[in-house]
Amino acid sequence: MEITKRVKIVTGLKCNIQCVFCYYRDNLHAPNRKFAEIRKDLLYARNRGISEVDFSGGEPTVHPDLPRLIEEAKSMGMEKVCIISNGIRISNRDYAAGLKSAGLDEILFSVHGSGEKIHDGITRIQGSFQKISRAISNAVSEGLTIRTNTVVNRINYNDLLAIGSFLIPFHPVQMNFITINDWCFAKNLVEKLMLSYSEMSPRLKEVCDLLAPHVIKVNVRYIPFCFMKDYERFVCNHRQVKFDPYEWVPRVRARLEI
């Protein structure tokens, strides 16, 4: 198995939504990083054999230089450029087309509900589900590769199958179902939102059964293998992520996140 050639580069923590489980929630109005700083990170990664990059935030689409950053990554020889996005700005077709023209290859969308009630409730932005639905459609129309992240929590646990059914027609190449990261930034949210492994595993197995015939890669992130008996092939924990081609190489990621 080969170690991934991809890395995450943060454009800043600024964001245009306010997800209830966000561990950066106290920094969402921080200024974006400067273009020169981000370019330096790109060069560092490229010089260490990295050939694919995910621009992340915060929300990378709120960075005014995002198209230029995509162009810069491509000019350095990055084979694949992706953004991790909530879809708010990409709901504008012209903006989506501009990112494609700059050289964008993929979008990893954060989808936390199958409808307005749950998705908007989690993002705390009215209309965000309509916008991400339109954004995914725009991305598909532009020929971009689609992947998705869904954070599994008490609010959307009973909606996971519906989320899967909603996304199948868009033909995502990968769908990630991620347990809440119990980081220090999110400690006050854990008891309210976090499920036990025994609570979530039956539904996650149902999701795997639903999606496996339709999606190239289904990932359940950060759950002990013993809770996913007979579904171990879908589990991707800390020791496995470096072998996921869509994940980030640990040694370079650690350096860039200092």
How does this structure look, described?
The chain is α/β, with parallel strands linked by helices. It has one domain: Aldolase class I (TIM Barrel, Alpha-Beta Barrel). The chain has 9 helices and 8 strands. α6 runs parallel beside α8 (197-211). The mean pLDDT is 91.
Query: What's the name of the CATH homologous superfamily?
Result: Aldolase class I
Provide a count of the helices: 9
Cα-atom radius of gyration? 17 Å
Helix content: 25-40%
Question: What shape does the CA trace take?
Answer: globular
What are the main properties of this structure?
258 residues, globular, 8 strands, single chain, TIM Barrel, alpha/beta, eight-stranded parallel beta sheet, 16% strand
How is the topology of this model organized?
Blueprint: E1 6-10, H1 35-46, E2 52-56, H2 66-75, E3 80-85, H3 93-102, E4 106-110, H4 116-123, H5 128-141, E5 145-152, H6 160-167, E6 174-179, H7 190-193, H8 197-211, E7 217-221, E8 235-236, H9 250-256
Parallel strand pairs: 1-2, 2-3, 3-4, 4-5, 5-6, 6-7, 7-8
Helix pairs in contact: 6-8
What can be said about this structure in brief?
34% of the residues lie in helices and 16% in strands. It contains 9 helices and 8 strands. An 8-stranded parallel β-sheet has the order 1-2-3-4-5-6-7-8.
